Amino acid sequence: MKLKEFDYFLPKSSIAQYPKTRRDQSCLMxxxxxSQSIEHYRFKQLPQILKKDDVLVxxxxxxIPARLIGAKKTGAKTEITLSRPIGDGQWYVFTKSRASFxxxxxxxxxxxxxxxxTGARIPETFEIPVTFNKKGKSFMTTIGKIGRAPLPPYITRxxxxxxxRYRLDLLDYQPVYAKDPGSVAAPTAGLHFTKPxxxxxxxxxxxxxxxxxxxxxxxxxxxxxxxxxxxKLIPESYRIASHEVNRIxxxxxxxxxxxxxxxxTLRVLEAASKNIxxxxxxxxxxxxxxxxxxxxxxxxxxxxITNFHLPCSTLFMLVAxxxxxxxxxxxxxxxxxxxxxxxxxxxxxxIFP
Length: 353
Known about the structure:
Radius of gyration: 20 Å
Structural class: alpha/beta
CATH class of the largest domain: Alpha Beta
Strand order of the largest sheet: 2-1-17-16-14-3-12-13-15
Distance between the termini: 21 Å
CATH superfamily of the largest domain: QueA-like
CATH topology of the largest domain: QueA-like
Strand content: 25-35%
Number of domains: 2
Number of helices: 9
Largest sheet: 9 strands, mixed
């Protein structure tokens, strides 16, 4: 398939810059692919849309404050964003600076944190390997104090005017059920849930279960290949706890509808599908670079909750694979017409194939 098939025009005004004051007040478009029909709700109405015995599966990975601002020893101000871990105290990072970086250069950060450039920039991803002088819990504690939310570039912020918005972003750019630190971008479909909404879902008899996939830069890596099949995702690590494996497998065997909350959850379920079926009383741990685009045959999820994604992105391709490209394109145009809010802090859709 050609990249241009996944393009669409989005007015800049449709890109959400801030979340709703209350998460579950976001809009929810419900797509019924068999009937090619579209309905409009608020996210707080999810319990009345789903059925008793449905099962929600969510990604509980927690976003780390991966955006770090410091300076080179020359005094030149610089900004780095943690991308993915290499080892204990070692990370690939993205840089945002006019200054060039060379092997051995050091980046001085608050909290007595120092990062040293230990290799060349990777041409395919533009990442630089950095080794820090702190490891493990000490490293995580430090970035927890000095780091900022790794917001995507389409969310524009200026934190230099003394405002405290960055502290709110650290809370807003995080699902309320996030637990396991490791993501450098939010699993955004989960941002619409509130604790009271989760309680209402459970009270109705809807199961809520969790997987963990640490979202890395591969999710947002631009597709540059004219033939999308030539695109490669950067592997991301995932884990499904043994008790959750058991519950998900039970739900599938008893014909319960499994609703994946977000593209990351969907990719975990699909990547681990064989291991879930062959469950042997242990956690499922692995990495996945599964790239889903139209033509893919799904075997785990019976519905998908997801946000509205960038044109020509792997996320848009995944949604097109799940709902059908032409119907998803129609839904996106209706979303624009009805002033839906797009991308990370935007509104959501629920797709029934």
